[in-house]
Specification:
Helix 1 crosses helix 13 and helix 9 packs across helix 12. The strands form two sheets. A seven-stranded parallel sheet has the order 3-2-1-4-5-6-7, sandwiched between helices. It is of the alpha/beta class. The longest helix has 19 residues. It is built from 13 helices and 13 strands. Helices cover 40% and strands 17% of the residues. The N terminus is likely disordered.
């Protein structure tokens, strides 16, 4: 059911995978839509769903809003994908152009926007040029048309902002993702359990297998009272990887994998864990392959809001979140990760002190702060 508010100015938001494989990017888009929907008439456009829209609204704690699904069939062929995206563009153009005041593209893929409408691109990380897989002359034309079709680019972090300028040659405004987990009361810090938590999609890029192996060989071996808990959504295209993780879990009592859990269950894990590990980008040359790093780090901030001390890789967006040695640790090598983790395990007072600092530091990324910043940006475009 669509909720029509004709007296309000209208905003169209593209979030392609909202009902398919939702993660940080989709949570970001939905929270942006929710904030703007209180003042404007917002419609979200996304691919036909594999999950119920109301389950997604509930998962991210937002009110039901206008949502338009369009047909899209998964395909592995680059040519077929390109042709399908072309058809999608035509479909969206008919439904958006001339009917909305602002169009906001929050998807990871490129999408040429529309004339006679204010177009904004929220960039999680700049994608490769079209000419990387099309004939050069066509690719260069589409690159130029794409970049000229947006009046404003938003970056989710300083890291993304830097690469957006370097790869696309575009200036941007930073709008950090909203963290909708409310910072806990400080008493929670003193009732934590002995486990380390990792949160993220259960895919190779998150370096989960490497961290499990390291935990089993070092931290778990030296600290039998501790366990490593991994929480995240599965990916049907990476089922073999997930099966491999489950196999490792089956032979180690101190490893626990919780896949596709509810937000309430995840929040409980955050509240109970003492330490949070993040390793996306491990073994990656940040200058050569920045796409394979964590461009912001929403789960790191979520952990901090619940008094879970982060020990994260010293790359990309993590450096903007963690003040090293104050509200968590940044690491460059596995031995350094183990050293910092062991330090927290051995020193209860240090862990509690850092946990309190983590809660305080996370407040600058909360939903109220995001709301003020987002409305300021959009209001000035109207």
């Amino acid at each position: 059911m669509n909720i029509i508010k004709r007296d309000k100015k209208r905003i169209a938001i593209l979030s392609e995978d909202l009902l398919r494989n939702s993660g940080g990017a989709e949570a970001y888009a939905l929270n942006l839509a929710n904030v703007l929907n209180n003042k404007y008439d917002v419609t979200i456009f996304c691919k036909e769903g594999k999950v119920d829209r109301y389950d997604v609204f509930e998962k991210y704690h937002v009110k039901p809003m206008n949502l338009c699904e369009y047909p899209f069939v998964d395909n592995d062929s680059r040519v077929k994908i390109f042709m399908q995206r072309l058809r999608m563009s035509v479909y969206l153009k008919k439904r958006i152009k001339g009917k909305y005041n602002i169009f906001i593209n929050t998807s990871l893929n490129r999408h040429i926007a529309y004339k006679n409408i204010c177009c904004v691109h929220l960039v999680h990380f700049p994608a490769k040029d079209y000419c990387s897989y099309l004939p050069r002359i066509i690719g260069l034309y589409l690159n130029k048309k794409y970049k000229e079709s947006y009046q404003l680019f938003l970056a989710n972090s300083m890291f993304t902002q830097k690469w957006l300028k370097k790869i696309w040659g575009k200036e941007s405004v930073i709008l950090n993702p909203p963290i909708y987990t409310e910072p806990v009361k400080l008493e929670v810090v003193y009732s934590k359990k002995n486990y380390i938590l990792m949160v993220g999609r259960l895919v190779p890029d998150k370096k989960i297998k490497e961290m499990i192996e390291n935990f089993v060989q070092v931290i778990g071996k030296n600290n039998p009272g501790y366990k490593l808990v991994i929480a995240g959504n599965t990916n049907t295209k990476k089922q073999d990887y997930f099966n491999e993780l489950k196999q490792i879990e089956s032979i180690n009592n101190n490893i626990e994998i919780k896949n596709d859990i509810s937000y309430a269950e995840l929040l409980c894990l955050y509240k109970n864990a003492k330490i949070f590990w993040h390793a996306a980008g491990y073994g990656v040359d940040e200058k050569k392959n920045p796409l394979l790093t964590e461009h912001f780090g929403m789960t790191t901030v979520e952990a901090m809001t619940q008094g879970c001390v982060p020990v994260a890789i010293n790359k990309a967006g993590q450096k903007e979140i963690i003040i090293n040695g104050v509200c968590g640790y940044l690491w460059n090598t596995i031995p350094e990760l183990n050293e910092k983790t062991q330090q927290l395990i051995d020193d209860k007072k240090l862990t509690e002190k850092m946990a309190i600092k983590a809660i305080e530091s996370s407040k600058k990324f909360t939903l109220p702060e995001f709301k003020k910043r987002a409305l300021f940006i959009i209001d000035n475009l109207m």
